[in-house]
Description:
The chain is mainly beta and 421 residues long. It has one helix at residues 2-21; strands spanning 42-43, 58-64, 73-75, 78-85, 89-96, 102-109, 124-125, 129-133, 138-143, 149-154, 173-175, 178-181, 190-194, 200-204, 218-222, 225-231, 237-241, 247-251, 264-266, 270-275, 280-288, 294-302, 313-315, 318-323, 329-333, 339-342, 355-358, 361-365, 372-376, 384-388, 401-403, 406-410, 414-419.
Amino acid sequence: MGLLKRAARVVIALAVVLLVTGFQEAKGEPWNQFLGPRRDGVAREAEGLPRQYPEGAQVRWQQEMGRGFGGAAIWEDSVLVVDRVRGESDIIRRLRLSDGSEVWRHEYEARRRVAHPGSRSTPATDGQLVYTVGTLGHIKALRFEDGEVVWRRHLLEDWDANLPQWAVSQSPLLMGNLLIVAPWGSEAAVVAYDKQTGEVAWTTPNRAGRDLDYQSPVPMNVDGRWTVVASGRHGYTIGVDAATGRELWSYDGYNSSWHIPSPTVLPGNRVLITGGYRAGSALLQVGRSGQGGYAVRELWQNRNLGSQMAQALYWDGHIYGNSTDTRGGLRCLNLDGEVVWDSADDGRTFERGFLLIADGLAFSINGRDGQIVVARATPDGFQDLGTIDVLGGNEVWAAIAYSDGVLVVRDHSQLVCLDLR
Length: 421
């Protein structure tokens, strides 16, 4: 009987390995989760986008929405987004990318008043199910076709995790056949579910006893081995094996009062951590240790980039980010952490807005007024190509989604689809 149990565990582990290694980085993948299929904020398949704005962008549709900081996911002709009724419920919506019409909605009770009210997270989908993490931690898997609930779990209650001060803003990670979240509770730091059934595939112990902050886990390939990088309270960061959940490395040399941006993965087994509140940034390198394990080395740490909300992005050998702590400009850094240029020198600032890179262009939202500025993503100085004025209000902090020449953006009253062609 013991041999049978061990054999069953081996079969399950092998199946998980095969499913995780099926996670690809191919071009042309749909923008099916937070920051895109690779969670890096870069639309690699984009090409032929205009070099002059606003002439290069037309509004395809506008759909009324409630307050929200959660971005959209896109799958073929569908846009998936989470909305919220203040203090009462979360609403998951599926809209048509072609005209903005609503296909279905799923609303569930989530009663609590939170500061900066509104939805927090971006859905994920594989075209069969839609996955979300709600403002209070409800994990939902809905049928893509009609929005019916297939399975449900809870990020906080299931893992004895604490609700952060500004509620849950984590977006679930789809990776192979797994749905991965990071509750940072006493029962687990990172958890992988079978995406079809919701059964737990593996857990990573919370050895450091850290609490949940506001980041989302990201995938990282380390010398051919798929791993998950997850940050907890104050920016404490770990890397875990994506097939088993085993912790491979940890880093505790960085501190942000409230850590919001998710880690940015760079080539060469490097990870960038950035945050606001004068925390600056740190660049790490992960490598094999002499004992067959992994070690992490800090390459540099400085305050040349301090993005309070949005992830910093890597593109073509450089780092781009909205540096809230230093005048709020879009900054370009080299991989030594040195500032190459700062848009604030040209009078362009972006507060806490998000950034997306497509076809060598940086689309950056001014979080203060919703204005979208388009610039070249190049180390050859800040090159302003114009602005797109379709959003308004303040605290415009939602992530941007891209699909085949189309941007989907939101403020606190509307979701807007922009055709860049």
